Amino acid sequence: MGPLTDLIWDYSKATSVGSTNLISLEELERTVKRMEYTDSTYVCTESTGKRRTYEFAVPGAVKKDIEVTFEDNYLFVKSSKKHFSKSYRVHFNTSFGVKEIFTDLKDGILTVVVTSSKKEVKIHF
Fold first, then answer.
1. For residue 37, is pLDDT > 70?
2. CA torsion, ordered 8, 9, 11, 16, to nearest 10 deg
3. Both 112 and 91 in a single domain?
4. Residue-level pLDDT at 76
5. Rounded to an integer, what distance in angstroms lies between the CA atom of residue 58 and that of residue 66?
6. Per-residue confidence band for 10, with pLDDT thresholds at 50, 70 and 90
7. 12 and 63 part of one domain
8. Are 85 and 61 in contact (CB under 8 A)?
9. Do 48 and 107 reside in the same domain of the chain?
10. Predicted model pTM
11. 28 and 63 co-located in one domain
12. 20-35: average pLDDT
């Protein structure tokens, strides 16, 4: 085993090494996932206390080309075609309390409506 392997192996027994705090493997995976998404341009067309509407450009995409997920207060939108990929990431404050996410795809524009509440997130696509 090398120093990095030893550090990962010993992680289950410690929360820090010296003054360096360690993170869980799950947190590392979430961080890497966030880094995979580039913040391309999108438009927020409506923002109220209970509802936000966003429009994302996904030229030539059909439903099967689009992935919409919500994790750790981030909305992720990814559109992938054979030679074209576009990714978006939108952060929500915990005070907004995402309740449901509705999507509609028309003429290369994905409209995403996010409603607010403090309950489990549901995605309708």
1. no
2. -70
3. yes
4. 92
5. 8
6. very low
7. no
8. no
9. yes
10. 0.63
11. no
12. 66
H or E element, residue 5: helix 3-10
Same domain, 48 and 104: yes
Q: How far apart are CA 101 and CA 99, in angstroms?
A: 7
Task: Indicate whether 54 and 76 sit together in one domain.
Answer: yes
| Domain CATH for 46 | 2.60.40.790
- Residue 46: in which H helix or E strand, if any? strand 42-47
Tell me which residue of 65, 41, 60, 51 sits closest to 112, measured CA to CA: 51
What is d(CA 56, CA 22) in angstroms, rounded to the nearest whole number? 36
Instruction: Identify which has the larger pLDDT, 6 or 116.
Output: 116
Q: Report the percentage of the chain scoring pLDDT > 70.
A: 67
Looking at the fold, whether 7 and 53 belong to one and the same domain comes out as: no
Please report, as a single letter, which amino acid is at residue 3: P
